[in-house]
Amino acid sequence: AMDGAPPPTSPTGLSAYVAVSQLLGLTLLATTGAWLGRYRGGVAWHSPLQFNAHPLCMVLGMVFLQGDALLVYRVFRNEAKRSTKALHALLHGLALVIALVGIIAVFESHRTKGIPDMYSLHSWCGMATFVLYLLQWFLGCGFFLFPGASFSLRGCYKPQHIFFGITLFILSITSCLLGITEMLLFKISDSYSHFVPEGILANTLGVLLVAFGLVVTYVLTREEWKRPPLAEELALSMDFKTLTEGESPGG
């Protein structure tokens, strides 16, 4: 700092939990790849293996990247709010694109193999989560990233945005767990109950998904770990309120 003050630091414990979340996230991605590569033949687009792009994309997009997007405001505590918002929106947008690729993969694979679509609980929950996630992203960009919404309107919507952000993250993990179970029952229903290696690996992936979700949710819900507003952000907020609502900050 210019006045000789020590640089701001993260709250005690935050860095450790964020590091654990990233370790879990990378491990669950590696476990997904190991399961698909070792037991399901790998991933290829124009082939019978096209379906395998679906679980890989959903775990990467709807779980790992979505979780990291939610953690942005905890990790980047002292950077400009505008930059943090942009990164938050960018990670969510990237998660949506990757998830869309996964959805296209499963529909094309079903069409090629003559399998019906959208009949299972997994497909219902998964599609509902994706559609709501897309809506959440558009609303978030409209309210917070682009100018236009008034200060009071932003204030009213912010609690809903935070609640549904965490809710959709939990729903994404739930949908993945349903998908893992469905895939195992389709592929190894005769041997699943005998603790075969593929079943154990897939169950381990499910446990990792739950662990990642718990750690991320814990970080998000610790009140003292929330990103404090910087002094210049408070001034800008008051200026924005004045401009959009036509009243003085002290009014």
TrEMBL record:
<feature type="transmembrane region" description="Helical">
    <location>
        <begin position="88"/>
        <end position="107"/>
    </location>
</feature>
<dbReference type="InterPro" id="IPR043205">
    <property type="entry name" value="CYB561/CYBRD1-like"/>
</dbReference>
<keyword id="KW-0472">Membrane</keyword>
<dbReference type="InterPro" id="IPR006593">
    <property type="entry name" value="Cyt_b561/ferric_Rdtase_TM"/>
</dbReference>
<keyword id="KW-0813">Transport</keyword>
<feature type="transmembrane region" description="Helical">
    <location>
        <begin position="12"/>
        <end position="36"/>
    </location>
</feature>
<keyword id="KW-1278">Translocase</keyword>
<keyword id="KW-0349">Heme</keyword>
<comment type="function">
    <text>Transmembrane reductase that uses ascorbate as an electron donor in the cytoplasm and transfers electrons across membranes to reduce monodehydro-L-ascorbate radical in the lumen of secretory vesicles. It is therefore involved the regeneration and homeostasis within secretory vesicles of ascorbate which in turn provides reducing equivalents needed to support the activity of intravesicular enzymes.</text>
</comment>
<keyword id="KW-0249">Electron transport</keyword>
<protein>
    <recommendedName>
        <fullName>Transmembrane ascorbate-dependent reductase CYB561</fullName>
    </recommendedName>
</protein>
<feature type="transmembrane region" description="Helical">
    <location>
        <begin position="56"/>
        <end position="76"/>
    </location>
</feature>
<feature type="transmembrane region" description="Helical">
    <location>
        <begin position="161"/>
        <end position="180"/>
    </location>
</feature>
<feature type="domain" description="Cytochrome b561">
    <location>
        <begin position="20"/>
        <end position="221"/>
    </location>
</feature>
<dbReference type="GO" id="GO:0016491">
    <property type="term" value="F:oxidoreductase activity"/>
</dbReference>
<keyword id="KW-1133">Transmembrane helix</keyword>
<feature type="transmembrane region" description="Helical">
    <location>
        <begin position="200"/>
        <end position="220"/>
    </location>
</feature>
<dbReference type="GO" id="GO:0005765">
    <property type="term" value="C:lysosomal membrane"/>
</dbReference>
<feature type="transmembrane region" description="Helical">
    <location>
        <begin position="127"/>
        <end position="149"/>
    </location>
</feature>
<dbReference type="Pfam" id="PF03188">
    <property type="entry name" value="Cytochrom_B561"/>
</dbReference>
<keyword id="KW-0968">Cytoplasmic vesicle</keyword>
<keyword id="KW-0408">Iron</keyword>
<keyword id="KW-0479">Metal-binding</keyword>
<dbReference type="GO" id="GO:0042584">
    <property type="term" value="C:chromaffin granule membrane"/>
</dbReference>
<dbReference type="GO" id="GO:0046872">
    <property type="term" value="F:metal ion binding"/>
</dbReference>
<keyword id="KW-0812">Transmembrane</keyword>
